């Protein structure tokens, strides 16, 4: 079989690698550090692209505060002052954003995930990881959260998440993925992007939603001198939404396909860091601060499950 799964060390961290020998496609996963994908390499013709930007050393990865490639659950983005109200009750989360102003990006970041099923088939290989949230501070609910990473022989990488309420009360859940994408050694200004949205979320000075506005931008549009730190509502009418990051110089397009529709990934955050060397393209299942607004929020009863899939390809 062309696929294999093996372990290797990255300093004191243990990595699991899914590798496909025909193309050299691979993804490198660190279960003990929030179940993140540290490296994702995909081939386009003769070129093998490493398409995720990650901190370069084990210690810098442990110390990272920018959520590079992290899984964000049971909420993503900011909750102002860490306070939210759910079913008439008020809750207080830790204000863990730099500066201590807000709660940000959930409760599973840098937590040790448990390795579950590992599967090798002729046309794909996958690893499933999980983490139990058990009545954390400010989130007194019990949720089993898992993610399945797969590499496919046709060059697709897929991330499938699954969340189940294993407690006795209704619970709010939101999921997001926070990858920083690169295309070779080019800077952001050389790329074009196609954003599957005609509505943008209006933020206050604390980047908390205060409304929605029409969004008009040529598809694709050159990123030269454009800066984003915005949330978008993906266009309705399709079962998926595709963001494209395009390098015409390298004749390659990165496609991020997020399932859309009821309960799925109907929001998208884009961020261009000041260094202009990568783009964060972050599919979300709900709007920023949905724990307060309810905008896109999934509410699970006892035993209820919510799931969704993100697909990454090079064309």
TrEMBL record:
Pfam families from the UniProt entry: Aldose_epim
CDD domains, per the entry: Aldose_epim
InterPro entries assigned: Aldose_1/G6P_1-epimerase, Gal_mutarotase_sf_dom, GH-type_carb-bd
UniProt-listed Gene3D superfamilies: 2.70.98.10
ATP-binding is among the record's keywords: no
EC number: 5.1.3.3
GO MF annotation terms: aldose 1-epimerase activity
Cofactors named for this entry: Ca(2+)
Keywords for the protein's UniProt record, in alphabetical order: Calcium, Isomerase
Keyword Metal-binding among record annotations: no
SUPFAM superfamilies: Galactose mutarotase-like
Summary of subunit composition and partner proteins: Monomer.
Protein name: Aldose 1-epimerase
Species assigned in the record: Dyadobacter arcticus
């Amino acid at each position: 079989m062309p696929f294999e799964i093996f372990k290797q060390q990255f300093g004191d961290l243990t990595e699991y690698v899914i590798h496909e020998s025909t193309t050299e496609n691979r993804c490198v996963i660190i279960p003990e550090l929030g179940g993140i994908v540290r490296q994702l390499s995909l081939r386009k013709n003769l070129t093998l692209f490493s398409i995720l930007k990650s901190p370069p050393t084990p210690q810098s990865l442990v110390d990272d505060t920018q959520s590079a490639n992290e899984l964000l659950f049971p909420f993503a983005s900011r909750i102002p002052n860490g306070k939210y109200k759910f079913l008439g009750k008020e809750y207080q989360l830790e204000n863990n954003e730099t500066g201590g102003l807000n709660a940000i990006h959930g409760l599973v970041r840098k937590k040790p995930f448990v390795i579950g099923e590992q599967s090798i088939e002729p046309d794909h290989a996958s690893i499933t990881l999980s983490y139990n949230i058990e009545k954390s501070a400010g989130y007194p609910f019990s949720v089993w959260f898992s993610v399945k990473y797969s590499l496919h022989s046709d060059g697709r990488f897929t991330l499938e998440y699954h969340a189940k309420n294993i407690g006795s009360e209704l619970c709010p859940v939101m999921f997001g993925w926070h990858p920083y994408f690169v295309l070779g050694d080019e800077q952001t200004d050389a790329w074009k992007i196609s954003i599957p949205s005609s509505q943008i979320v209006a933020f206050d000075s604390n980047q908390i939603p205060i409304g929605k506005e029409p969004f008009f931008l040529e598809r694709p549009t050159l990123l030269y001198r454009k800066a984003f730190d915005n949330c978008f509502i993906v266009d309705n009418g399709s079962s998926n939404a595709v963001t494209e990051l395009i390098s015409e110089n390298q004749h390659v397009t990165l496609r991020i396909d997020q399932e859309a529709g009821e309960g799925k990934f109907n929001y998208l955050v884009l961020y261009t860091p000041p260094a202009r060397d990568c783009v964060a393209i972050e599919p979300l299942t709900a709007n920023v601060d949905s724990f307060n607004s309810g905008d896109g929020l999934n509410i699970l009863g006892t035993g209820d499950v919510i799931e969704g899939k993100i697909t990454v390809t090079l064309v």
